[in-house]
Amino acid sequence: MLKVKNLSFSVSEKGTDRNILSDISFDVRSGEMLVITGPNGGGKSTLAKVLMGIEKADSGKVILDGTDITNYDIDERAEAGIGFAFQQPPRFKGMTVDKLISLAAGEHKSEAECCSLLSRVGLCAQEYVKREVDNTLSGGEMKRLEIATVLAKPHKLCIFDEPEAGIDLWSFSMLIQQFEEIKKDKEQSLILISHQERIMQMADRVMVIEDGKVAGIGKREDILPQLMKQGPSCCSYLKRLEDM
C-alpha cells in the first residue's frame, strides 16, 4: 500500500548539512498498523512530515497504492488519501470547531455529525462544537480535536504523531478505542509515532528509528521483547500508562 524507498532528508546549519533521515526504507500494508518508536531526536516526527509532504525529501521515493507521490505537495497527498495529526496541533483564532471539522472533511458537516466526531474522541460535543480553535483550548483538547478532524474523512493512510501526548488517561482510553476500531475495519492503514507501550501492543509491526536510520523493524511480538531485554539505555523511551 505504502512503499518508502531510500528516503533521506537533511537540513543546513551554518553552511553545513546535517542528516536527519538517512536511507529509510519500509512499507505499510493495506489495513496494517505500524508503530514507529525510538529515542527523542531520532527523526520520527521528521519522517512523518516528509511522508505528508510538509517537508521535501532530498532523495528517495514515496509510493502510495502503486502511484509515485514523491513530488506531491501536502494538498496533493491529502487528496491522494493521506491524513495527518500533528504532535502539536495548530490553532486558528476566529475559526469554530464545526468549521474546522468541515474543512478537514472536505464537505459541510452538520452540527450533529460534528458532535458525533467530538464524542468519539472524548469531548463533550455541545460544549465544543461552536468554540473557537484558539488559546482557550488546552493542549489535550487540541490533540483530541486534531484527531477528530482526521476521523472526519476516510483515508487510505492515517499518520498520528504521538497521539497520547498531553492527554489524560480517560481520553487516552477513548483514543485507544478509536484506533482499535480503525484497525478492526481494515479499511485504513495506520502509522502511529509513539513511546506508549499500550499503543505498541496494538501494532501489527513496530519500527525503531535511531539517529535517522531504521534500527529495527518486525512483528510486534518480536521487536518489543528485544527492546525490553536491551535494558534501560535502549528502552527508556518506552512509556507505560502509569507514566502518563
UniProtKB/TrEMBL annotation:
Q: Does the keyword Phosphoprotein apply?
A: no
The UniProt entry's coiled-coil ranges are none
Q: Which Gene Ontology CC terms are recorded? A: plasma membrane
Membrane-spanning parts = none
Which keywords appear in this protein's UniProt record, sorted alphabetically? ATP-binding, Nucleotide-binding
Gene3D superfamilies noted in UniProt: P-loop containing nucleotide triphosphate hydrolases
Task: Describe the location of the ABC transporter domain by residue ranges.
Answer: 2-236
Q: Which Pfam families match?
A: ABC_tran
PROSITE patterns linked: ABC_TRANSPORTER_1, ABC_TRANSPORTER_2
Q: GO terms for molecular function, please?
A: ATP binding; ATP hydrolysis activity; transmembrane transporter activity
| InterPro entries the record matches | AAA+_ATPase (IPR003593), ABC_transporter-like_ATP-bd (IPR003439), ABC_transporter-like_CS (IPR017871), ABC_transpr_LolD-like (IPR015854), P-loop_NTPase (IPR027417)
Q: Does the keyword Glycoprotein apply?
A: no
For this protein, the record's PANTHER family field holds:
IMPORT ATP-BINDING PROTEIN
Q: What is this protein called?
A: ATP-binding cassette domain-containing protein
Lineage of the native species? Bacteria, Bacillati, Bacillota, Clostridia, Peptostreptococcales
